[in-house]
Amino acid sequence: MSGRSWTFVSMSLACATPVTMAATSSAPLMRFTRLTSVVRTVLWDIRQRFSPRPMPASVDVMDLFDPVLFEQLVALRRDIHRHPELSWNETRTALRICEFLEQHGIANQKDVAGTGVVANIPAATGAPIIALRADTDALPIHEETGLPFASEVDGVMHACGHDGHTSMLLGAAVLLARGPDLPAPVRLIFQPAEELGRGAPAMIDAGVLDGVGMIFGGHLDRHYPTGTVIVTDGPVNAASDRFSIEIRGSGGHAARPHETVDAVVVGSLLVIAI
Ligand SMILES: [Zn+2]
Questions:
Q1: pTM (2 decimals)?
Q2: Cα 151 to middle of ligand 1, angstroms
Q3: How do 116-121 and 229-233 pair as beta strands?
Q4: From the CA of 107, how far away is ligand 1's center (Å)?
């Protein structure tokens, strides 16, 4: 990747919960439409960077709305929610992704870095590729929501919203593939094993960022009002990472603890201080 200029833009896509996203009232329809509108607006923005052209005065977001597609996405998201899969085991999820893409005429490549899926939407321009990324794995948590589409797998749940991310990216894929001609080619990256922090490097090693000039990642976030889309330049969410701290104590007699350095006490204070 040396010698290449990378711009990472993080999007936090706010929804009260993935559940509200799957409701069928007009509010979520508007949110879905708004989201796809944002994606197109961002793409226009990017085209301005590489190939300046007059921008349309306005974009009518309702032009993008498709109630049939929306219902398909709700059904797909609930199906994925019912069948959550842990990191590196997302085989059924990958199959559903590929099926959906193929139903909508979007060529795709599966088994990327194991259980990843990649699809490309071409454009007539030679602009660098814009990548949109979703994660696909679930967590080792037992679902107790009582929802009609709750997890059918004991001890595994889509508790982080990746079922929503996957469905949203598929919706964006279909709308972007419909045209009009895109200002830049778009690559859709369905990344496994986000929860382990290992899926992204594995996908990069597999070459999914080759030719990519900019990448967008999104995450549902219940801390913002439903229907809000937060876009910012640079990192917005914490990364999964590990570190170790070594605390060295000093022993002594139990009757004189003040003459020792108790590593347990220091460790306890350290946890609070952090
Ligand atoms: Zn997550």
A1: 0.71
A2: 17
A3: unpaired
A4: 26
